[in-house]
Design goal:
alpha+beta; Creatine Amidinohydrolase; 4 helices; 15 strands; 26% strand
C-alpha cells in the first residue's frame, strides 16, 4: 500500500528535504581533484547534524557512511574511503539522505571532477534530464509505470543503458516505502498516483551496458563492462496540481 501523507507530514518531509538539499549543495562546492570521498562524507555528516537531523544512511544495514560515493564505473552504494582520492576527469555520484523529526529525505547528484570527457558530461546531462522528464509527469491520476517509461524512453533514445537491478521508492517515516519505482516500464500501468504520495525518483544510467555486479565489499555496485555510470535523485511529492521537489537546491 502506498502511504498518503497529510499536510503536517508533508511539511515535516519538506523540512527534511531542505537538509539533504543543503548537503548536495555543499558537495557541488567540495568536489575537486585531491579530495577523498571520506572527506566528502565528513562534510556531509557535519552538515546534516548542523540542522539537528541524523544521517539516513549511516548504519543502515551496516553501511559505514553518511553518503554513498560512487566513482566512475561505480553505479551506487560506493563506500567513502580515505584512499579514494578524486582526480581530474573522474565523475562521482553522491547519494545522501537525512531524517528530521521522524521523516526522511533522499537525493543524489553526479558531479564531474575538474575537466571531464565529452562522453562523461553527456552521460551526466542525459541522466539529469531523464530525472526531470519523469518528475515533469508527476501529478494525480498518472500511473506509476509512466515514470519508468519516461526515463527508459529518453535514456535509450540517447544511447544510454538503463540500470534495471536498482530502482526508486516511496519515502516517508522510512527511507524505503512502497512503491518500488523502476526506471523502465510500460506507460499506463501500475498504481494511480494521488496527492500526498511522496516518491524518491532516481534514474541510474550507464554509458555502456545496463548490466551491473556487486563487489566483494557487499555494497559497491559497478557496471559489468567498466563504463561510466551516473545517478540523479530527488524526493518528490505529488500535489493537487502536479508535484513539488523537496530536495531541490538549484
Amino acid at each position: 500500500m502506498i502511504e498518503v501523507k497529510n499536510e503536517h507530514e508533508l511539511q515535516l518531509m519538506r523540512n527534511a528535504g531542505k537538509v539533504t538539499a543543503a548537503v548536495l549543495e555543499k558537495m557541488t562546492q567540495a568536489v575537486q581533484p585531491g579530495v577523498s570521498t571520506l572527506d566528502l562524507d565528513a562534510i556531509a555528516e557535519k552538515t546534516i547534524r548542523s540542522f539537528g537531523a541524523v544521517p539516513l544512511f549511516l548504519g543502515y544495514g551496516g553501511f559505514p557512511g553518511s553518503i554513498c560515493a560512487s566513482v566512475n564505473e561505480e553505479v551506487v552504494h560506493g563506500i567513502p574511503k580515505k584512499g579514494t582520492i578524486l582526480k581530474s576527469g573522474d565523475i562521482i555520484s553522491i547519494d545522501t539522505g537525512a531524517k528530521l523529526d521522524g521523516f526522511c529525505s533522499d537525493a543524489a547528484i553526479t558531479l564531474g571532477v575538474g575537466k571531464v570527457s565529452d562522453e562523461a558530461q553527456r552521460l551526466m546531462d542525459v541522466t539529469k534530464k531523464s530525472l526531470y522528464k519523469a518528475i515533469g509527469l508527476v501529478k494525480p491520476g498518472i500511473r506509476l509505470g509512466d515514470i519508468g517509461h519516461a526515463v527508459e524512453t529518453y535514456a535509450e533514445q540517447q544511447g544510454m543503458g538503463v540500470v534495471r537491478d536498482y530502482c526508486g521508492h516511496g519515502i516517508g517515516r522510512s527511507m524505503h516505502e512502497e512503491p518500488s519505482i523502476p526506471n523502465f516500464g510500460k506507460a499506463g500501468t501500475g498504481p494511480v498516483l494521488q496527492a500526498g504520495m511522496v516518491l524518491a525518483i532516481e534514474p541510474m544510467l550507464t554509458a555502456g551496458t545496463w548490466r551491473v555486479r556487486q563487489l566483494s565489499d557487499g555494497w559497491t555496485v559497478v557496471t559489468r563492462d567498466g563504463s561510466y555510470a551516473a545517478h540523479f535523485e530527488h524526493t518528490v511529492a505529488v500535489t493537487a496540481n502536479g508535484s513539488e521537489i523537496f530536495t531541490a537546491f538549484e
